[in-house]
Amino acid sequence: MQQEKILNLFSFRKIAIPILLGVLTASYLVYRDLSKTNYTEIWNSVSIQWTYQHTFYLFLAIFLVFLRDLSYIYRIRILTDKKLSWRHSFQVIMLWEFASSLTPSVVGGSAVALFIVNKEGISGGKSTAIVMVTALLDELFYLLIVPFAILIAGFNKVFAASSEFHFLGSSYSAFWIFCIGYSFIFILISIICYAIFIRPIHFKNLLNKVFKINWLKKWQPKIEKWGNDLLQTSAEMKGKKLSFWARTFGATAFSWTARFFMLNCLIMTVNPHLDQILALARQLVMWVILLISPTPGGAGIAEYALPVFMGEFIPLGLASSIAILWRLLSYYPYIIAGSLVLPLWLKRVYKSKTIK
User: Fold this and answer.
1) Distant-in-sequence, close-in-space partners of 273: CB < 8 Å, separation ≥ 6
2) Which single residue of 101, 128, 315, 326 could bond 297 by disulfide (Cβ 3.0 to 4.6 Å)?
3) 93 and 76 in contact (C-beta within 8 Å)?
């Protein structure tokens, strides 16, 4: 029964939707670029000859993809006290990224990640804490790096390429969407810190009160057990040494730095003189737009947003092509990897359960 539920989460329909959205958006963007210019103008605007330097930037971008994943794998091993082997950690991260690719960015793959980690033999409470601490580390890194990047790059330069986005008949500037997203992340971090490090007992009691509401009562026993596990894990997390947090945050910083500079490297294949810090700051603003995207994995939105925020760094007519290449390296590989890993993982975890 549980196998059927998890397979339904990764059904063909849910895989096809983001792929279709991405392909349709990419096709439209390429068509739009070509309708404004032609291949000769594009070639003349680039006016470069492919050299070893451009090949280096391309392979560096690919290397940064592997570095990003390796950092995540190392982090999950630390968070589970190395109870997961390198192979099992790889499977967990690939399935976690797979889930994130198939769920709306605003929702994320946390619920599926909780299921996956729990099936690896980690208790319910600790699995929840691992997922929550992972979110905490990711969002904390983002909160810390954004002010520095904008300060160094210059506020006016960062938001110079901002465009209006339309939603439910209203228009919003990229700056205000960024402020809303940044505030949301700050609130999320505050809740996680409160639940794990400050007043876990109060957080548990608050959840118990909420789930006493009539239409939520059926989940109250699970929430009660989850709250008890969370209290135990909170005590464990509070007792972790500074070296533990230094390693986990260091892995987080490596992973996110690799994620952002991978796009910088792709742009440098056509613009070797890229302003690295300004491009990084623009990505950080763009990331908020992707964070609140209603589409699975930001499909369609990401391909559209990149030319808006990064277009001035890319020669005429090539922004859409860079956007497609960016998604081919940062998004679609996880759909493929997750599809290959899922049957192997299901066979392993349910076989282990049967043996026990």
Assistant:
1) none
2) 101
3) yes
Residues 57, 44: Cα–Cα separation, whole Å? 21
pLDDT at 131: 87
Which among 188, 73, 79, 208 has a CA at the least distance from the CA of 142?
A: 188
Taking CA atoms, 338 is separated from 81, 96, 121, 177, 344, in Å, by 24, 8, 20, 31, 10
Determine which of 60-69, 161-170, 274-283 has the lowest per-residue pLDDT on average: 161-170
Amino acid, single-letter form, for residue 337:
A
CA 38 to chain centre: 35
Distance between CA atoms of 17 and 74, rounded to whole angstroms? Answer: 31
Q: In this predicted structure, which of 5-14, 80-89, 254-263 has the lowest mean pLDDT?
A: 5-14
Give this prediction's pTM: 0.85
- pLDDT tens digits, one per residue of 15-74: 777 777 777 776 776 666 666 555 555 555 555 566 788 889 999 999 999 999 999 999
Identify whether the C-beta of residue 330 lies closer than 8 Å to the C-beta of residue 322.
no
Give residue 213's pLDDT band: very low, low, confident or very high (50, 70, 90): confident
Count Cβ atoms below 10 Å from residue 127 Cβ, excluding itself.
23
Nearest-10 Cα torsion for 187, 192, 194, 200: 150
Is the pLDDT assigned to residue 237 strictly greater than 80?
Answer: yes
> Can you point out the beta strands (E) in the chain?
164-167, 170-173
Q: Which residue has the tokens 């533990």?
A: 244
**SS3 (DSSP) at 356:** coil
